[in-house]
Hints:
Radius of gyration: 23 Å
InterPro entries: FAD/NAD-bd_sf, GMC_OxRdtase, GMC_OxRdtase_N, GMC_OxRtase_C
Transmembrane segments: 12-35
Number of strands: 26
Domain Glucose-methanol-choline oxidoreductase N-terminal: 135-158, 311-325
Keywords: FAD, Flavoprotein, Membrane, Transmembrane, Transmembrane helix
Organism: Sitophilus oryzae (Rice weevil)
Amino acid sequence: MAIVNLLATTALKSVGLLGSTIWIIPLMLASLTFINYNQLDPESPIINQKTLHKEYDFVVVGGGSAGAVVASRLSEVPNWKVLLLEAGPDENEISDVPSLAAYLQLSKLDWGYKVESTGRACLGMKNGRCNWPRGKVLGGSSVLNYMLYVRGNKNDYDYWEQLGNPGWNYDEVLKYFIKSEDNRNPYLARTPYHGMGGLLTVQESPWRTPLVVAFVETGLEMGYPIRDINGADQAGFMIAQGTIRRGQRCSTAKAFLRPVKLRKNIHIALNSHVTRILINPSNMRAFGVEFYRNGRKHVVLARKEVILAAGSINTPQLLMLSGIGPKRELEKHNIPVLRDLPVGHNLQDHVGMGGFTFRVDKPVSIVQDRFPAFPMTMQYVLNEKGPMTTLGGVEGLAFVNTKYGNRSWPDIQFHMAPASVNSDAGARVRKVLGLTDELYNTVYKPIANQDVYSLIPLLLRPRSRGWVKLRSKNPFDDPIINANYFDDPKDIRVLVEGAKIGIKISESKAFKKFGSRVHIIPFPNCKHFEFGSDQYWECHIRTISMTIYHPVGTCKMGPEWDSEAVVDPRLKVYGVTGLRVIDASIMPTIPSGNTNAPAIMVGEKGADLVKEDWLSFAEYKK
Length: 622
């Protein structure tokens, strides 16, 4: 037992969690001392290649949601040598536990970014700045996220093609969603919209509260069907599906890299922070990368391509550090301009209304003090079931339309969770959100550990656009991120309508049987507005403006005539040969839903584009 206890303590220290308390499960971390690593993840840790070749065919930068897919798929070609560089460490047994999602944020597995204060949003956060978690770990943000599997609306992808991106319409991308997927819910797996036998496991959590049943029943009351929101039509309510396997998180590292880790032609180097792409200015060809590992500078060359898959924040930062970006921005930092492109522009995110809390009278929600830690943990370890399998607490999803939207292309998504900011008595969620003490103590502390549920309406197609800029030419400085929430006034109007729909959901017959009612202590900065008025809801939204962790668009894909485009429809960076971007930053507009599944799709399709360009037709079809 002492050895097992030591292993667990070491794992907790490795992600900066020791001494914390989980927001939905009491004493969970103490109970994890009884868990052996191999019980949680029977696959051995990834091989962190110590000695690297001087040259590879492909160097993939970033082992996240897309990068892990790209590296895995390229290594399917036996005579290609592939190197994957990841700035963070490997996953561990803590990140495997779905209910511990909130604990991974602000840990050593998180880049720990914050957005700039604008005075229009994040007013209830310390210094007016929202936290923006991003995965610094093999598997990237698929290790930190709430695992929700949502593809977006078919109109999203048809629109991409209309913008001048052939091959990116819904019918084309659907086959890549299906290619990845191993759906283990039979009622969905046998439909034309889902796959079985892919590398990425998708299924419902094996545990749920009665509140999610009320949630989907409410959809029927409101005239929405209970449907597969990843199927033919999107508008409707559904019990959430997630990227979990046997009750554990199924990140892209687990799905795409662990099965291929013994291939001789793929090397994975962890804790390898890429600082610059090497580009020959005479012929504008990318020929390698510079990176730091264990405090030492290294250079590795790429015979065919450097592929950036570092995500919507780090990919534009790295391009700009390498001389690819807006001329004025680069000159400000004395970086030689190799190619003047709008890198870092077009930033989009799904902003949501956080802290929208509803009280209930029955013991049906997730309350920290209710779950006996040891038997619950044993249920998880031995049976792969129980509260520890919950998707970070989110149980239900819905896509609805306000008066500004329509049934074929809903403009609001709801996340339903059987908990809220108060459910852990202030131990974790308030820190993840970065709430001020005044806001938490006034509104949520009076109902600490009481039964509640929350609805998070989020804006599916924001009009506002933000940006990523360099803070300095030092590659180890965090970039400047301006989400620019609510720059377009229509965005806040749509979310206010979403709040009013949330009130209607809470007043349904299905929820009333639990004594459902909105928590009515007003926010301190909003109390001069009538509670429940449009003005009050707008103030609430601006106070707890909650990122749903979906930044996209900062290296926009578009045709050559698009002045905002950074990459072409084959994801090649304009004006630079041997350099591609394959991650969520290429998305011209944000998909209508959670972006992890679309990022994986981009990885799948991007890898095929590389194969098409470098293999003969006969080789590619093998």
